[in-house]
Amino acid sequence: MQPPRTPADWFHLAERAYSERHQACAWCGGAYRVHLARQGAKHTFRCQQCDFQVTFDAQNDDYHLVPGEDLSGVSETMLEKPIADLLRK
Ligand SMILES: [Zn+2]
Q: Which of 1, 60, 69, 86 gives 20 to 30 Å between its CA and that of 76?
C-alpha cells in the first residue's frame, strides 16, 4: 500500500500531467480534459471528465482537493452510449 496522497501531492501531479501530457488529468489519466483557472493567487486544475479538482492558494500556502469520480468502467459506458442513442431514434 502506498501512503495516501496529500492535496499538495495531487496539485503537483495535476500540474505535471497538465504540462507534460497535453492537459491530462492526474486523476483519471485522460488527455485534453483539464482546465487551468487562475484567480489571483489561486490556481485550480479541474477535469471535465471525472470532476477532479485541485486548488493551490499561493497567498495562504493552502491546497484543496476535490477527488474525482471513479471512472473505471467508463470506456464501456462510452461505447454503449452511441448505441443507446441510436436505439432511441
Ligand atoms: Zn479526470
A: 1
Q: Measure 78 CA to ligand 1 centroid, in angstroms.
A: 15
- The rounded Å distance from CA 9 to ligand 1 centre is 16
Q: How many angstroms does the Cα of residue 89 sit away from the middle of ligand 1?
A: 31
Domain spans in the chain, listed from the N-terminal domain onward: 7-88
Query: Exposed, middle or buried: residue 37 (CB in 10 Å: 0-12, 13-18, 19+)?
Result: exposed
pLDDT in tens, 7-35: 999 999 999 999 999 999 999 999 999 99
Sheet with 62-66, strands from edge to edge, namely 34-39, 42-47, 53-57, 62-66
pTM: 0.76
Query: How many A from CA of 77 to the centre of ligand 1?
Result: 16
Among candidate residues 65, 57, 59, the one with its CA nearest the CA of residue 26 = 65
